């Protein structure tokens, strides 16, 4: 997951390949609660691992439920409606799929509970559900504003005779919550009547489908009246598989529709969900097809290719696909006219006011947008010049972040910044990694920051922090020379120019791979071994051999991957990435560098003296600067930074400011 303050997306050009999507949030949280309330043990496969499922799992454990996790498989031993912990305080983040159903389930059983969430959750209405539960005799108090969480639940005095009326026109989650909770107390038939038009009916279909899997058959009567039969009991189905999330699939369906494939590849394959999905958002497919996407599907897969181009503008009632419809609003940027999405009033009470958010952010990109109480109308920029680089505010709303990433395919190749990219953790923590696994940019548009300079000037430290803050890859090019020196020494090859060919032959066989900050040579983690002063000196020797340097060029350039790269070394800016957008030449006085290196070695328990360290590093710098190929020197367009008197933080901030000054935002 990208936990950076923002994530800059270079212009994306192609997309092709297969993606496996995380489990559906709607199914995951429903199944977790149903399993916890039923008799028997349920093994849930392919459960979504995200913020919203995590708060549900914590809540279930707090309530005394036995939860055993192993990757995406979770075993729940159901409580059959009897809670060992009769009082609990539950924090439910911003998870509507946890807050609403848990409110109903805990309100109908005896106990004292407090349910709260993040500030936005306390602005999301729950009054209609509370009103319905109060008709049943549930004791519920508002702890903040009337009609909104946080809530206090007490012991109910249940009255099951009259039909329970619940509004269906604000959120279908209220009806879902009642449908899942009432089997716990169905000593007689319980009737729920929906007041107003039921929105998001597909979500109710998921609820009924899953209730049936847990042994409770609820028949809808014209989708206005639902009867939970007397004696209904939730029983574990044993094993249950969670489909991939159809709302998450919408981004990749859109990706297939708007992107062309690179040579020899063929569209986007989405694995884990097919056209026969029980999730309502699968009908996003139809909307994407109406806009021009070519889609094939089979059991558990979809294959999407670009069809009509530009996409065709549509006018669509989106009541049946409220979440996925946000993706249509971004697809509209690539359409041949004005797209109108109607019947989306529920957007106003989601993670944020999504109609307002989408309108504001689409306008930043240059689109013309008209918004109303329950619709949005999007007209793309009239020409290439109409597109504007934009920093997209994401409102702590995962769907805003995910759907706007698709704007990186804009034909004007303007840059895009996604603020707070980690908000995708709500449903799809690895969204951007998944996007980058199938999307590609022209290599020349993938940004590179080079940090070159003499030994122990702090290049590695600075470059690693920059990479972390920008969410970029990190290349420690010195480690490649260090490994080469190590391998040659181990092979008994003296490090002199006469053995250059032998060293290169050996280098070409080395199974080097990087895993985070660890460097592996085959099965051996050599990260620490190559950090000694001796290894540094040996690296300096082999790095002077022209054929060794040539043999390492492609390996280093291959680090230039989406979304960007920070590279540290001696010739990053002069030879390996001469067209890098920012080149920093980092120096510090020799005395200062020797002192830093001494501290560094002593902290690792490696004995050293200041004088010998200074002599060594000066010798290394002299060799590195005087060699004939790629000598250590600042690139002509490098910015010099002497950090002798600077802290690491100040150096990092200085370079981040330089980087920011080059951005169009
Ligand atoms: N601005 C700074 N102020 C104080 N100490 C620093 C600063 N930058 C780096 N250091 C410290 O100096 C030491 C050497 O830094 P680092 O290993 O990053 O240097 P380097 O240039 O990558 O070295 P090498 O060329 O050997 O790979 C580390 O202990 C690091 O924490
Ligand atoms: N781009 C580079 C990087 C390193 N070297 C040589 O390797 C030695 C070790 O590098 P560290 O950054 O890990 O200390 C260094 O002294 C150089 O001789 C290089 O040539 N080019």
UniProtKB/TrEMBL annotation:
<feature type="binding site">
    <location>
        <position position="96"/>
    </location>
    <ligand>
        <name>phosphoenolpyruvate</name>
    </ligand>
</feature>
<keyword id="KW-0057">Aromatic amino acid biosynthesis</keyword>
<dbReference type="GO" id="GO:0003866">
    <property type="term" value="F:3-phosphoshikimate 1-carboxyvinyltransferase activity"/>
</dbReference>
<feature type="binding site">
    <location>
        <position position="124"/>
    </location>
    <ligand>
        <name>phosphoenolpyruvate</name>
    </ligand>
</feature>
<dbReference type="Pfam" id="PF02224">
    <property type="entry name" value="Cytidylate_kin"/>
</dbReference>
<keyword id="KW-0067">ATP-binding</keyword>
<keyword id="KW-0418">Kinase</keyword>
<feature type="binding site">
    <location>
        <position position="200"/>
    </location>
    <ligand>
        <name>3-phosphoshikimate</name>
    </ligand>
</feature>
<comment type="pathway">
    <text>Metabolic intermediate biosynthesis; chorismate biosynthesis; chorismate from D-erythrose 4-phosphate and phosphoenolpyruvate: step 6/7.</text>
</comment>
<dbReference type="Pfam" id="PF00275">
    <property type="entry name" value="EPSP_synthase"/>
</dbReference>
<feature type="binding site">
    <location>
        <position position="399"/>
    </location>
    <ligand>
        <name>phosphoenolpyruvate</name>
    </ligand>
</feature>
<dbReference type="InterPro" id="IPR023193">
    <property type="entry name" value="EPSP_synthase_CS"/>
</dbReference>
<feature type="binding site">
    <location>
        <position position="426"/>
    </location>
    <ligand>
        <name>phosphoenolpyruvate</name>
    </ligand>
</feature>
<keyword id="KW-0808">Transferase</keyword>
<feature type="binding site">
    <location>
        <position position="171"/>
    </location>
    <ligand>
        <name>3-phosphoshikimate</name>
    </ligand>
</feature>
<dbReference type="InterPro" id="IPR027417">
    <property type="entry name" value="P-loop_NTPase"/>
</dbReference>
<feature type="binding site">
    <location>
        <position position="25"/>
    </location>
    <ligand>
        <name>3-phosphoshikimate</name>
    </ligand>
</feature>
<dbReference type="InterPro" id="IPR036968">
    <property type="entry name" value="Enolpyruvate_Tfrase_sf"/>
</dbReference>
<keyword id="KW-0963">Cytoplasm</keyword>
<feature type="binding site">
    <location>
        <position position="350"/>
    </location>
    <ligand>
        <name>3-phosphoshikimate</name>
    </ligand>
</feature>
<comment type="similarity">
    <text>Belongs to the EPSP synthase family.</text>
</comment>
<feature type="binding site">
    <location>
        <position position="30"/>
    </location>
    <ligand>
        <name>3-phosphoshikimate</name>
    </ligand>
</feature>
<feature type="binding site">
    <location>
        <position position="354"/>
    </location>
    <ligand>
        <name>phosphoenolpyruvate</name>
    </ligand>
</feature>
<protein>
    <recommendedName>
        <fullName>Multifunctional fusion protein</fullName>
        <ecNumber>2.5.1.19</ecNumber>
        <ecNumber>2.7.4.25</ecNumber>
    </recommendedName>
</protein>
<comment type="subunit">
    <text>Monomer.</text>
</comment>
<dbReference type="InterPro" id="IPR003136">
    <property type="entry name" value="Cytidylate_kin"/>
</dbReference>
<feature type="binding site">
    <location>
        <position position="173"/>
    </location>
    <ligand>
        <name>3-phosphoshikimate</name>
    </ligand>
</feature>
<keyword id="KW-0028">Amino-acid biosynthesis</keyword>
<dbReference type="InterPro" id="IPR001986">
    <property type="entry name" value="Enolpyruvate_Tfrase_dom"/>
</dbReference>
<feature type="active site" description="Proton acceptor">
    <location>
        <position position="323"/>
    </location>
</feature>
<dbReference type="GO" id="GO:0016301">
    <property type="term" value="F:kinase activity"/>
</dbReference>
<feature type="binding site">
    <location>
        <position position="172"/>
    </location>
    <ligand>
        <name>3-phosphoshikimate</name>
    </ligand>
</feature>
<feature type="binding site">
    <location>
        <begin position="453"/>
        <end position="461"/>
    </location>
    <ligand>
        <name>ATP</name>
    </ligand>
</feature>
<feature type="binding site">
    <location>
        <position position="25"/>
    </location>
    <ligand>
        <name>phosphoenolpyruvate</name>
    </ligand>
</feature>
<feature type="binding site">
    <location>
        <position position="173"/>
    </location>
    <ligand>
        <name>phosphoenolpyruvate</name>
    </ligand>
</feature>
<dbReference type="InterPro" id="IPR013792">
    <property type="entry name" value="RNA3'P_cycl/enolpyr_Trfase_a/b"/>
</dbReference>
<dbReference type="InterPro" id="IPR011994">
    <property type="entry name" value="Cytidylate_kinase_dom"/>
</dbReference>
<comment type="function">
    <text>Catalyzes the transfer of the enolpyruvyl moiety of phosphoenolpyruvate (PEP) to the 5-hydroxyl of shikimate-3-phosphate (S3P) to produce enolpyruvyl shikimate-3-phosphate and inorganic phosphate.</text>
</comment>
<feature type="binding site">
    <location>
        <position position="26"/>
    </location>
    <ligand>
        <name>3-phosphoshikimate</name>
    </ligand>
</feature>
<dbReference type="InterPro" id="IPR006264">
    <property type="entry name" value="EPSP_synthase"/>
</dbReference>
<feature type="domain" description="Cytidylate kinase">
    <location>
        <begin position="449"/>
        <end position="657"/>
    </location>
</feature>
<keyword id="KW-0547">Nucleotide-binding</keyword>
